[in-house]
Specification:
Low-confidence stretches: 1-6
Number of helices: 12
Helix content: 40-55%
Order of helices and strands: HHHHHEEEEEEHHEEEHHEEEEEEHHHE
Largest sheet: 6 strands, antiparallel
Shape: elongated
Mean pLDDT: 83
Strand order of the largest sheet: 3-2-1-6-5-4
Oligomer: single chain
Strand content: 15-25%
Number of strands: 16
């Protein structure tokens, strides 16, 4: 059995069931909570209105001119007894918790005048004439009738309503208060909540059982079969397991069919992969040979002319990943003339490498035939234009150094302008007349320039792989940085100069991939 099969510890059916159970429980809790709050508010509002209506009714029986005299004399009479009996009747009729008459002392304190009889004999719950009482946490407003929800640890929850009683002169003489207990509402809600929880659990269990049955038949079982088929195929079994053996008529069947097609395509791809891989390896080997051949065509033995002390020359090419078209060359045309060449062929890969070999060979052959740099470029340009169906071109710079006099005759075909440094001075750009690239157009006439090199002068040639080297932020090294780097290391001999500039490029690139060949050549007169 494949190891991946052992890792299936939580089937999708179980996850769906647990998720549904969690959702159902949360839904039931939310429904119960909001039902509890809504019913509580509805009941408290209903009984608050009842308490207020009863207080209004009781206040109709109170004589506002006489009720306030009882607190002055602290004695009762027949009217007091008759009014108390009326309050008792009203309390029993409307099933009130408390019904009483009081006189306000301030916003929270009252003085009792009378209270309807209690069903309990607890004297702590009965107001007597002249007794003071404080409503904790409640601020009373005696200007108009009000209803208030009370919550007391001893008496429980209740609604309290009070109505003012005025004398014939309009003076507030007393208040009639009525309280209705909400204890039974709490009990009813508790029973309702328990019933809802039990009912929700039963419904949840039934729905979970149904969901498990449906999900096992329509989801879990087909997915388990599909998973087994996929694991079997991954283990190297045949494709027969994917022959549309899942018939659910939904997305799972579509997924099974897609897996079957993917497996067939994958098998076909695997069959072709060995052929493609072998071909790629062959091409890779040939490219590797081409790279080595290309590198072997460039002068690579230094010092190049150990018997000559009139000059020091060093060159290097650091290729990118692909075979490229950069090249450099230097050779003696005769005992007194040294030719230097640097060029960059457009494009990458084998075509560029082949075009580079042709261009290098033509340049060297024409130079050794005794032609000047201008004549070499005029001739080679026309030769490269012939049958150039790929529309490739070459940027190039060639110079002839007269070793005895130090005269440098040079010509450029759209190449980067070289750097030149007089002995004891700084590097600067060599004046170059702009010209079209080689193989760009027939019959181009190139312009030849001349400059005298004194002992200690240095000529530095390079390709655009130097100035266009990029860092991780896609910024280029630029010609300005190259000039600064050359002047920073101007006292170094050619070999050390090239290594120092390459190090400056690496520091700038910060590990970014090299996308183009980096080719440099330095010539120093002695």
């Amino acid at each position: 059995m494949p190891e991946s099969k052992k890792r299936i510890r939580r089937p999708i059916g179980l996850k769906m069931t647990l998720l549904f159970v969690l959702f159902a429980l949360l839904f039931c809790l939310a429904l119960g909570f909001f039902s509890y709050r809504a019913s509580w508010e509805a009941y408290t509002d209903t009984y608050a209105r009842k308490a207020l209506q009863v207080a209004h009714s009781a206040a109709l029986f109170v004589d506002g001119d006489r009720i306030g005299t009882y607190l002055e004399s602290m004695e009762t009479d027949d009217y007091y007894d008759e009014l108390l009996e009326t309050l008792n009747s009203i309390k029993r009729e409307f099933d009130l918790m408390y019904l009483y008459i009081f006189k306000p002392e301030d916003e929270t304190n009252i003085i009792a005048i009378m209270e309807a009889e209690l069903e309990s004999d607890d004297p702590k719950t009965l107001f007597e004439l002249g007794e003071k009482y404080t409503y904790d946490g409640v601020v009373l407003d005696y200007d108009e009738a009000k209803k208030i929800i009370l919550h007391d640890e001893h008496y429980g929850s209740a609604v309290f309503a009070y109505v003012p009683v005025y004398s014939s002169s309009g003076e507030l003489t007393a208040m009639v208060g009525a309280e209705v207990s909400l204890a039974w509402v709490r009990e009813m809600q508790a029973d309702f909540f328990k019933t809802m929880i039990i009912l929700s659990c039963v419904i949840t269990i039934l729905m979970v059982a149904g969901l498990m049955l449906v999900s096992r038949r329509m989801i879990s079982k087909p997915l388990k079969r599909l998973t087994g088929d996929a694991l079997s195929f991954a283990s190297g079994d045949s494709l027969s397991t994917f022959e549309n053996n899942i018939k659910t008529g939904d997305e799972i069947q579509a997924l099974s069919e897609a897996f079957g097609k993917m497996a067939c395509d994958l098998a076909e791809y695997i069959d072709n992969l060995q052929t493609v891989t072998a071909e790629r390896e062959r091409i890779g080997a040939e490219l590797d040979v081409a790279t080595k051949i290309q590198a072997s065509m460039l002068p690579c033995i230094f010092p190049a002319y150990p018997e000559r002390d009139e000059f020091d020359i060093y060159a290097d090419m650091i290729p990118a990943k692909e075979v490229g078209g950069d090249f450099y060359d230097f050779f003696l045309i005769d005992d007194n003339t040294l030719a230097v060449v640097i060029a960059d062929v457009s494009g990458k890969g084998v075509p560029a490498a082949l075009f580079m070999v042709i261009a290098k060979t033509l340049l060297k052959n024409n130079a050794q035939a005794g032609k000047s740099p201008k004549e070499v470029f005029d001739t080679v340009n026309n030769m490269l234009c012939e049958n150039n169906e790929a529309n490739m071109f070459v940027t190039a710079f060639m110079g002839y150094l007269d070793i005895a006099s130090g005269k440098l005759s040079y010509v450029s075909a759209g190449h980067e302008p070289p750097l030149i440094m007089p002995a004891g001075g700084d590097y600067d750009w060599l004046p170059v007349t702009p010209a079209l690239v080689l193989a760009g157009m027939d019959d181009v006439q190139y312009t030849q320039g001349e400059v005298m090199l004194q002992p200690g002068d240095v000529l530095f040639l390079y390709t655009d792989g130097v100035t266009e080297a990029m860092n991780t932020e896609r910024k280029q090294f630029t010609s300005r940085r190259l000039l600064d780097a050359a002047n920073k290391h101007k006292d170094r001999p050619p070999k050390e100069l090239l290594a120092a500039i390459k190090q400056e490029i690496d520091l700038f690139a910060e590990g970014a991939e090299q996308f183009d060949d980096i080719t440099m050549l330095a010539l120093k007169t002695a």
